[in-house]
Amino acid sequence: xxxLSGASSQLGRTYSRVEAGLxxxxxxxxxxxxxxxxxxxxxxxxxxxxxxxxxxxxxxTSWKHQHKxxxxxxxxxxxxxxxxxxxxxxxxxxxxxxxxxGVNEQLMxxxxxxxxxxxxxxxxxTLCEEMTCSLCCILRTSFLVSMAGSARRGCNRFGSGIYTSxxxxxxxxxxxxxxxxxxxxxxxxxxxxxxSSIHYRASENLTAPPWGYDSVIGKVGIxxxxxxxxxxRNEAIRPAYIVIYERPNSPSVTTVPxxxxxxxxxxxxxxxxxxxxxxxxxx
Length: 283
Ligand SMILES: [Zn+2]
Description:
By secondary structure, the protein is α+β, with helices and mostly antiparallel strands. It has helices at residues 46-61, 83-100, 134-141, 168-174, 268-279; strands at 8-10, 13-15, 37-40, 73-80, 105-111, 162-164, 177-178, 183-192, 196-199, 215-218, 228-231, 237-246, 255-256.
């Protein structure tokens, strides 16, 4: 048999066209992922069950404010980010690994404004273009330090950084739901804290962690009522899950009117500005 016609046999062994150097092995290159997608975690489906249980347990055990009843989780979605956001996060983790021989990656909660019906039903997984929806802004671009700095009074305890909490009940305080919606949503973010500087007092002028550190942790104590984890680099944090839960039975529940359905950003600049103002009212 000719090599050019297919496999060949020599001393009892069969050689393929690839081994013979006549063709190159087929290499599948998946298409680049360019946008964020959400995937409903079905607790009745075994491939999703471990993920669902992990996040549900984290949410429930991290509910620290006893004056607010632990709400019922209604749905959990996994966030799949564009390739470039995953790449920059992985590169930053590599930087921390080389610097400290450890990343100190944690799952933390972040409450923000939801201006659409995202997550209310299993099929509600399309990010909106509404100007008041910080949740979709964050899911689309991940967190941006440039959006920090104009938060409402008292929120920027550690300056212009990206804030998360280890307590789901703290993030709930900043999770603003559309008017008349029965559901609230908070982001579970993976945060590469690296080496953290521990603070018991606010330090509102920070624009970066103290020299030699990668993040700031605010501890409950002298003048802080809630814990904060603050990073000052975009690539140090990524949204990983969305938890949809019933409104806690609390008189301090905050709502915002659901915007008109056709309210859209006119361009990317407007989108960024709206995201800034909305996101700065969170944590
Ligand atoms: Zn939205």
